[in-house]
Amino acid sequence: MGREQVIYCGIDWAEKTHDVALVDDTGQLVAKRHITDDATGYQLLLELLAEWGDSEENPIPVAIETSRGLLVAVLRAGKRKVYAINPMAAARYRDRHSVSRKKSDSGDALVLANILRTDMHAHRPLPNDSDLGRAIAILARAQQDSLWNRQQLANQLRSLLREYYPAALDAVATWTNGLCRPETRELLKVAPTPTQAARLTRTQLQAALKRAGRKRGIEAEADRLRDVFRAHWAHQPPLVENALGKQMLALLTQLEAACTAADQLAETVEEVFPQHPDANILLSFPGLGIQLAARILAEIGDDRTRFADARGLKAYAGASPVTRASGKKSSITRRWVKNDRLNHAGYLWAFAALRHSPGAGAHYRRRRKVGDWHAAAQRNLFNRMIGQLYHCLQHSKLFDENTAFPTELAAAA
């Protein structure tokens, strides 16, 4: 009897159907199938894999061009390794085997299977995160997306108000996160145009502030708003002003929905994140609250084997620099290929740590003295702190200021 045959699977993913190809370790196509994106199709796929030796002890590795969806969830059940191949990388592999630039779904599935056969060592399987960790990742990313969407709508609303209603912008200028506050939204509902705002009485303004949930300083704030709205402002023609008011109300409805979604998702993250075993370690770091810590966990996951060392995590986060050398030219620059969500969270983390950690503040000032700009100094601080986070997670330790910044603390003292 010959040696045991090794099988690799490639799946060309689409919205409604998928093409499956199985190859052996010589590159020979041994099976292919076209399946639908439903429970019946998933069962046919599992039966095909089982027919060619797939088992719990010896699962067949699978390459696919996505990391999300029900098909990936079905494939990840058990110990099977699933490799999410970047579509651009798959296109480059396709060019290795054919110069005619021909393309087909079944051919793409064959290319993906051969990627595992020849270069499995150059690709990483999807991390084996816990179900709780993956749930936190979904919620944290959704909350981050809702904040970005809210800010985008607030920017659109600000641009529109500048065209015909500058009094509203002046009225909320002193409020933190002015256009997203419930008081602002309530005032704009009551008076969508500056003409209507100028007619508001103290009683109406006080009632609007109360409906928005304001508890203190209502009378003084109502007087201030009344003075602002009744000041001299330039106006659009009445018909144009009314039309802009209708447009503003439609945009305000979208902003209110975005604000509600952001608040609800933030509450859910606050409920779920503390249940994770790594929550105490993350929250022990200066500058990390529940929302920001949840975003960090969402991107790095809780699979301890995902990163071989701290350098890998730093490169993934875009915190460590990259060297480009060719001939006599050599340059060290920031890393452009990175996890943008983790990099964004790291910038906020480093900025907040400056006020909560004496060692972090001293490290930042030292980098500025040697010539780093603000962003470069913060990136350097993030690079150091995410390395410390990797160490603490690997050894289940809480953050310790004296251990993390011994040199900076001694210099500051």
Describe the structure.
This protein is globular. 59% of the residues lie in helices and 9% in strands. By secondary structure, the chain is α/β, with parallel strands linked by helices. It is built from 19 helices and seven strands. The termini are far apart.
What are the low-pLDDT stretches, counting only 5+ consecutive residues below 50?
Answer: none
Helix content: 55-70%
Task: Tell me the structural class.
Answer: alpha/beta
Largest sheet: 5 strands, mixed
**Could you tell me the strand content as a percent range?**
5-15%
Q: Label the overall shape.
A: globular
How are the strands of the largest sheet arranged?
Answer: 3-2-1-4-5
Given the structure, what is the number of helices?
Answer: 19
Straight-line N-to-C gap: 74 Å
- The overall pLDDT, averaged over residues, is 89
Radius of gyration: 28 Å
Got a strand count?
7
In N-to-C order, the SSE pattern is EEEHEHEHHHHHHHHHHHHEEHHHHH
